[in-house]
Amino acid sequence: MSKEYQKFKCVNCEHEFISGAKKPRCSKCFSTRINKISAFTLEKEMRPQTPTKEEPKPINKPIEQKTMPMPKQEKKNDFLDDFDF
How many C-beta neighbours within 10 Å does residue 59 have? Predict the structure, then answer.
């Protein structure tokens, strides 16, 4: 024996739900004051697919960062400067 599922709308909180019970109650407020919605199928309602946002594309080539060469350090001979000859 298969259940007959029906769609209902609660009179108190206007919550719509599906039930296969003989004496259905609202699944949100547990009220037994409900109205039956006649047009109903068990097939899942398909929402229209929302378009995904595309990332903006750069207009021109990205700016390349130029690296500055490090200045050459001259070797200092501090060792000899400390001593007097």
Answer: 5
C-alpha 25/C-alpha 23 separation (Å) is 7
Fill in the amino acid letter for 66. Answer: K
CA atoms within 13 A on the CB side of 20: 7
As a whole number of Å, the end-to-end CA separation of the chain is 113
Over residues 55-74, the pLDDT tens digits come to 877 677 666 777 777 777 76
How many C-beta neighbours within 10 Å does residue 8 have?
A: 20
Distance CA 43, CA 59 (A): 46
Residue (of 17, 19, 26) closest to 5 by Cα position: 19
Sign of the C-alpha dihedral computed for residues 76, 80, 84 and 85 taken in this order = negative
CA distance 58 to 6: 53
